[in-house]
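Shipment paperwork, digital attachment
Item: protein structure file
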Amino acid sequence: MKKLVKLMSATMLATAVGAFSAAADTVKIAFIDPLSGPFATTGSNGLAEYKFAAEELVNKQGGVLGGQEFEIVAFDNKMSGKESLINVQVAIDQGIKFIAQGNSSGIAHAITDAVDKHNRRNPDNRVLFLNYSAVDPALTNDKCNFWHFRFDANADIKMDALTDVMAQNKELGKVYLIGQDYSFGKAVAAAAVRDLSSKRPDIEIVGNELHPIGKVKDFTPYARKIVSSGADAVITGNWGSDMVGLGKAIIEAGFEGPIYTYYAASNGITRTFGEAGKGSIYLVGEGFQNPPASDRMSKYVEEFNAKYPDHDISQARITNVVEMLARAIDEAGSATDVVKIAYALEGMEHDSLWGGKVFMRPDDHQAIQNVHVGVHTDEDMKHPLDNSPYGIYSTSMVEMASANSPTSCKMKRP
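Attachment content:
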């Protein structure tokens, strides 16, 4: 009996050691975004994109460092800054070295500050912040730090591309600005005022207002003000349920001009707009699926849609995060030495799945890439969105947008 107990103990120990070794061979990325509440659809979609990218672009390709796989660990921050900081600490306590977040620049500010403080106080247990979607320009300007990398084009870069297109539309005489009342919404409005004043000083801004984020149930009063202002076009940085509510109200109020947006696609938005949004909803961003950049891109989209039929690839830059991180880990020769990994990311040039290159600018850790402006339509749709006939078709593209744009970042390196 004693021999049997010893044998069982030895077997259990070996199993536990094997499980620990397998876990140690996994490179974990903490995904911290809303998975409940009004913005849950956006967060859940991003989580699906991360999981698919990790599996298809890294794990099935042999992993990193000769066999370590990526694992995405999900945390629900409930769109709360306080909850996000708790999530960050839990992730660090679990030994996770990479924090991915994107929804809400306000939350991104809280995370980047927390990561910077943690790394200064714990030089033997540093982590990196992989910002895939929070685009307040301040994050790579006055609030920059060595541990933060932004893979999305910031609000200023996108507005520069968007206003280039608007400036060519001679029918525009009046523009209405509306957005969510937090750092990103304010940044969009400021960039619109600046760029339109420079490129089309004849355009009159007839409205510039902010509304509470995630709290407005009926946008009809806002829509009526927009229509009564005589605006020829609307610019908004709204996303998630706020984009659905605002866009729908504007169109139902009888507004017929172009609505220029940052995030008016997928997550129920494309299907909601449907025919009413055709030719009137415009979107600025990277990695558009129509027309396809390559057969490889089309194959990736089709396989994602087959695995996640209720989701879309709405944040193409997630593939760049995953592939560039994998390259940096291999170049650093370590999945835990985040200083070496960060230096490997700095200055990296990456051939994006979506066409063109991505350059991680060393000065401020801002990704420089091609930026498109596209229109909501059902014409020439190779890859429609939201299980609908509609999608976004690229009508113009700025190559390596704002590559020489100035930055006020004064980065301190370890």
